[in-house]
Amino acid sequence: MKNVLKNKPAMILTLVLIVIAAGATNWYTKSHNSSLPVISKNMNQNTESTRNDPNNLPTPEEEQTRKCTLSTKSTEEYIENARMEKERGRSQTISILRDTISNPNTSQKDKEIASQSISKLTSRIELEPVIENILKAKGFSQIMLCLGENDASVIIKCSQLDRNQVAQIKDIIIDKAKLKANNIKIIPIE
Q1: Which of 7, 87, 131, 163 is the most exposed place for a label (fewest CB within 10 A)?
Q2: 149 lies in which domain range?
Q3: Per-residue model confidence as pLDDT tens digits over 9-61
């Protein structure tokens, strides 16, 4: 029993990471399976049976056509869904941490670790819209930023980014979030 109590901070951290991973997986699965159209070799055919048929994959030309015909609305929906999933996962994480803090059986050390985790997460949550607004002011209209403890992911609506734009985005994140450039992932979507 004493071994279990000694590892409680590790268990709390593991639970937090599992909740975040579950939220990210859920977001990825929903955004990649249900929001995008299924393209078959016959462009008029768009059914579940063709979705699961490995012999009925789109040609490169059909795939490019699909990419070019995704509407602005679907891109906006994609970014908004990603934002909602991120917020939902973080809410669950904060709820778990608050439950840990309010549990009378939790040691003082574990309560402090949970409190610090909430504080760090809250700081990142507050910093994200600040950075997003700076990037919007620089001309990037549709953005979703997700700051981790040591990394960042940015989803940006645009077909391509040149080196100057990538450098501009990274410089802003480096300056505001104090991250290293190689820990910043930029994902352009059309």
Answers
A1: 163
A2: 2-36+70-189
A3: 666 666 666 766 666 565 555 554 444 333 333 333 444 444 444 455 555 54
Euclidean distance between CA atoms 51 and 37, whole angstroms: 10
DSSP 104: T
User: Are the CB atoms for 23 and 83 separated by under 8 Å?
Assistant: no
Q: What is the DSSP letter of 148?
A: -
Q: How many domains does the chain have?
A: 1
Is residue 172 very low, low, confident or very high in pLDDT (cuts 50, 70, 90)? Answer: very high
- In a domain, residue 181? The reply is yes
Q: With 0.85 as the threshold, say if the pTM is over it.
A: no
- CA–CA dist 91, 79 (Å, integer): 18
As a whole number of angstroms, the distance between CA 182 and CA 27 comes to: 24
- Whether residue 63 is contained in a domain is answered as no
- Write the CB contacts of 10 (distance below 8 Å, at least 6 apart in sequence): none
Q: What is the CATH number of the domain that holds 114?
A: 1.10.287.4300
Q: Tell me how far apart the alpha carbons of residues 116 and 135 are, in angstroms, rounded to a whole number.
A: 29
Structural domain includes residue 53: no
Positive or negative: CA dihedral 172, 174, 179, 183 = positive
